[in-house]
Amino acid sequence: MTPKRKQRLVIVLAILVGVSVAVGLALFALSQNINLFYSPTQIAQGEAPRDTRIRAGGMVVEGSVLRASDSLQVRFELTDYAETVPVEFTGILPDLFREGQGIVAQGSLDNQGVFQAVEVLAKHDENYMPPEVAEALQASGKMPQPEAEVFNK
Amino acid sequence: MIPELGEYSLILALCLSALLAVVPLVGATTGNRLWMSYARPLARAQFLFLGVSMACLVQAFLSDDFSVAYVAGNSNTALPYYYKFSAVWGGHEGSLLLWVLILGGWTWAVAAKSEDLPLDIVARVLSVMGMIGVGFILFTLLTSSPFERLLPNAPAEGGDLNPLLQDFGLIVHPPMLYMGYVGFSVAFAFAIAALLSGRLDAAWARWSRPWTVVAWAFLTLGIALGSWWAYYELGWGGWWFWDPVENASFMPWLIGTALVHSLIVTEKRGVFKSWTVLLAIFAFSLSLLGTFLVRSGVLTSVHAFATDPERGYFVLALLGISIGGSLLLYALRAGHVKSESSFSLLSRETMLLINNIVLVVVCLMVLLGTVYPLLMDALGLGKISVGPPYFNSLFIPLMSVMIVFLGLGTVARWKHTRAGQLVEKLWLPALLSLVTGVAVSFLAGESFNVAVALAVMLAAWVFFSQLRDIYAKLRSKSNPVAGLRALSRSYWAMQLAHIGVAVTIVGITMVSVYSDARDLRMAPGDSIGFGPYTFVYDGVREHKGPNYVSDKAQIRVMKDGTEYTRMHPEKRFYNARGNIMTEAAIDPGFTRDLYVAMGESLGDDAWAIRVQYKPYVRWIWLGGLLMTAGGLLAATDPRYRKQARREAQRAKAQSEINAEGTTA
């Protein structure tokens, strides 16, 4: 091999090694950071894993929001109109968090079957429903009518 | 009447860009100089009619013409005039019109600023831009015209602009971002023109360099503005979320940064030519991909616009045609390109190659994290989301590697550098950054923090290696001041942009590690201590704005027992849509921000309040501004114009000789 070819080989090998290390790292990081979405029905039927970071979404049940008087702890229920899941959250809820509104919460299920949320997301648009929630509602056949026409327009 | 004029002139602009796409290109292929010379007037006329079209839409907004569906959906009589103006690009249709207007603007700028370039190159470049224009004007007209009427039942009042968008940040953020996105179309057009003409030499790199660097500067500014807007307007003090839409603008930036660097190597050394062309194609393709991700509604995001599958398919088709077509052309033409020089393993070329590889790899990582959930969903494998830890755990180590090579690349020489030379030049900067990193980490927090030490070391490494390079440039000069003056403008531009990188690193590190936030319930008279500051909550009163009412809290900030400032966070209720919005109060500072936002009312005048201390957060955007300034400074280097003129004369002389040869 000429020195020039040798040098090229070194560069090509370096790139190959670099790329495979990067791809390996990426896949590892990806596998550690994927948050699966579960609907209230799936959670109630025990399909969702415990103590693992997951996302849950649905409509906030009317009249279910309970606030602690001395702290920022909130408890509410999430439904897809087939099953409901209790959720606990400590902190400030987003502006569009309202009863009857579709939300997505990020957190994990504890041993009592309560979803301990670390983050609650609601979009800044009153007609918006998170696609996951819309799909979960359609799956349970409980998509609200006729508002459904307004959703995601 | 006026909206119809707008639609009509948009159709005219479409016809003109169709002519622009065909006539000069045919001229360039057949050697017909008359046809080639149509490129510039067509580009000017296209921009004129796009401008008229935009002016009509602006007029419809300012005059509250709610018979236009788009105006009715995004404006309101109670909206102040400057938000009526920015509401023009507050929705999908208008922002698309802004997109094509800016494309027309770039096309016009190339036509106006290219008098030194050979005519056939100008004709090809403008033709390619005309093709892009056809695609996007067609997209606007067919799927999302902003001029559609709501007749005969025009509403008396508009639906209002989303309150999140009623903000200074949104007046300036989208135009800057689009200037960057669309600006990469110029680099793309130059690359395609070079492939078409088969003249892939250092000259084309020199011609496209100023354009690319300007587009890159605007994109940098646009992203920095977007981050700043998210910080103060979304209400929770976050400045980057790895949100898919943020990623959509960040991916072209990463490739654009690689492109700006590889263009330097192509221009100065005549190597990496086909790689540079490929980067130019990718930078623009990722801009298109970003447009697709944002416009098609496949994303769940705070930024995503209304969903419409038809629009998604249209952009996807545009994406397929432009990426497929340009890569096919690349495959046919780029194989014959030969390097004009060689370089050894230890040289500036290699350092810049590493810069390019890292940036491309990082971009692929971001792409994977952004598109993976979409793919899984499309394949029916479940709904997932990829969290910020994925991005952070890859982005930070990879970029750290690149920063190390940034210092090495600045002092390394072209072609070949001895290892001893690098050590001799860089041992002191390395030592200084080691000391700085450790010292800052000890002084900034209560205890030593390894992450802070490493990150500050990297920032200091950039800073000191840049200084060392200036010193090396001056050492041989007898008069240092004259030596400083003699350094070229693009050299200072590089210094400025690299210092900007260091400043941003400091900002990101400090705010990520030393931020302090507390959510708490506050009744009037309650207080909370934060380092030297004490926040006292005085209560809430009602406040009336032009199109909203709000609960406005007063919080007195005490420092060492005396009153330091008063902060007034708000909870606004926008009448038209019934939206509730958090308006944070920020006390900005060079080394720290105080940030107070209101949560919800807890009854009896008590509110949930979030108080935050954000050290060095401004440095993140300050670094972005420095990078932008660097980019703009580089583009104005007079060297480009002089050299371009010289080359054009040579090319002209050459073509005249050829012409004489054929006639004789």
TrEMBL record, chain A:
Keyword Disulfide bond: no
Keywords for this protein: Cell inner membrane, Cell membrane, Cytochrome c-type biogenesis, Heme, Iron, Membrane, Metal-binding, Signal-anchor, Transmembrane, Transmembrane helix
GO CC, alphabetical: plasma membrane
HAMAP family: CcmE
Family statement drawn from the similarity comment of this UniProt entry: Belongs to the CcmE/CycJ family.
PANTHER family: CYTOCHROME C-TYPE BIOGENESIS PROTEIN CCME HOMOLOG, MITOCHONDRIAL (PTHR34128)
Keyword Acetylation listed: no
One of the record's GO molecular function terms: heme binding
NCBIfam families: PRK13165.1 (NF009638), PRK13254.1-1 (NF009727), PRK13254.1-3 (NF009729), PRK13254.1-5 (NF009731)
A GO BP annotation: protein-heme linkage
Name used for this protein in its record: Cytochrome c-type biogenesis protein CcmE
Parts of the chain that traverse the membrane: 9-30
Protein localization: Cell inner membrane; Cell membrane
Topology of this chain in the membrane: Single-pass type II membrane protein
Cytoplasmic topology ranges: 1-8
Residues annotated as binding heme: H124, Y128
Function text: Heme chaperone required for the biogenesis of c-type cytochromes. Transiently binds heme delivered by CcmC and transfers the heme to apo-cytochromes in a process facilitated by CcmF and CcmH.
Extracellular-side positions: 30-153
Pfam families assigned to the protein according to its UniProt record, in alphabetical order: CcmE
TrEMBL record, chain B:
InterPro entries for this protein: CcmF_C, Cyt_c_assembly, Cyt_c_biogenesis, Cyt_c_biogenesis_CcmF
Domain Cytochrome c assembly protein: 89-296
UniProt keyword Zinc-finger present: no
UniProt keyword list: Cell inner membrane, Cell membrane, Cytochrome c-type biogenesis, Membrane, Transmembrane, Transmembrane helix
Location(s) in or outside the cell: Cell inner membrane
Highest taxon listed in the record's lineage: Bacteria
CC per GO annotation: plasma membrane
Cytochrome c-type biogenesis protein CcmF C-terminal domain segment(s): 316-637
A Pfam family per the record: Cytochrom_C_asm
Transmembrane segments: 6-30, 42-62, 82-109, 121-142, 178-198, 210-230, 250-266, 275-293, 313-332, 353-375, 395-414, 426-444, 450-471, 492-514, 616-636
GO molecular function: heme binding; heme transmembrane transporter activity
A single BP term in Gene Ontology: cytochrome complex assembly
Membrane topology of this protein: Multi-pass membrane protein
Keyword field contains Chloroplast: no
Family affiliation: Belongs to the CcmF/CycK/Ccl1/NrfE/CcsA family.
Function: Required for the biogenesis of c-type cytochromes. Possible subunit of a heme lyase.
PANTHER family in the cross-refs: CYTOCHROME C ASSEMBLY PROTEIN-RELATED, CYTOCHROME C-TYPE BIOGENESIS PROTEIN CCMF
Protein name, UniProt field: Cytochrome c-type biogenesis protein CcmF
Phylogenetic classification of the source organism: Bacteria, Pseudomonadati, Pseudomonadota, Gammaproteobacteria, Oceanospirillales
